[in-house]
From TrEMBL:
One of its GO terms (biological process) is inositol metabolic process. This is fructose-bisphosphatase. Its EC number is 3.1.3.11. Coiled coil: none annotated. Keywords: Carbohydrate metabolism, Hydrolase, Magnesium, Metal-binding. Belongs to the inositol monophosphatase superfamily. FBPase class 4 family.
Amino acid sequence: MLEIPITYLKIKDELKKKKKIMRWSVMKWDEIGKNIAKEIESSILKYFGKKEKSYVVGKSPSGDDTEIFDKISEDIALKFLKPLNVNIVSEEIGIIDNGSEWTVVIDPVDGSFNFINGIPFFAFCFGVYKNNKPYYGLTYEFITKSFYEAYYKKGSYLNGEKIKVKEFNPNDITISYYPNNKTDINKLRDKVKRVRIFGAFGLEMCYVAKGSLDAVLDIRPKVRAVDIASSYIICKEAGALITDENGKELKFKLNATDRLNIIVANSKEMLNMILETLQK
Ligand SMILES: Nc1ncnc2c1ncn2[C@@H]1O[C@H](CO)[C@@H](O)[C@H]1OP(=O)(O)O
Ligand SMILES: [Mg+2]
Ligand SMILES: [Mg+2]
């Protein structure tokens, strides 16, 4: 597993206080991601379900409102990442291009609506790409303290335990979906046993990865690379198929603005069932 040299921020902060020189240390991407997740957690949970405490501080490059807790979370991530001189793609600020081979793609809070409305389903998404190829993904579900993570080609894990997608059983299908107004979603609804729509796409993808959901799709389309970059790696490593609305292998650019049609399914059978219902 590759390691990258970075400034160990906590040490750096302490040394700075003592006016001593900065010391260098080595940290792995999973440690960096988890440290960011934990610091975000300790800073924003006081806003959970407290609509009256939050307020809009601006607009993201994709045109959505940025709430104060989104900004606080992103600032924490940036504090850790900026000293690394990697490229950063994050929901609220967009792209910081440092010409690095590394790109870190972040959604500081996926499921912002849930978060501020007291619905306990939201996550921190941290995807690392090397030369635009998947390298490491971490999606952290705050309320259940679940770290979903995967290094490319090394399998997918939930709090250290290996996870994989559920086996397809046509009589026992549970899916989540975000259709558009042209979709006759009842065609799909009628073929599955249960529908559960949770409101945080990146995290719902992890529910496919761990076998709680058979599939999740967004053909509104609303989600962007920031919402899916970390869970994309986790889902792939757990055995999921990830395609566009036509069943073609999903390709996406690492930016904060493109909206993506995406289907994540546990099997070819599940994917075909979805694709059939999307045909006019
Ligand atoms: N304009 C938009 N409206 C609704 N959901 C959006 C959206 N842009 C992105 N999404 C994402 O779609 C899912 C639910 O609708 C969430 O993962 C949400 O991510 P967000 O909470 O980070 O914005
Ligand atoms: Mg999001
Ligand atoms: Mg977000």
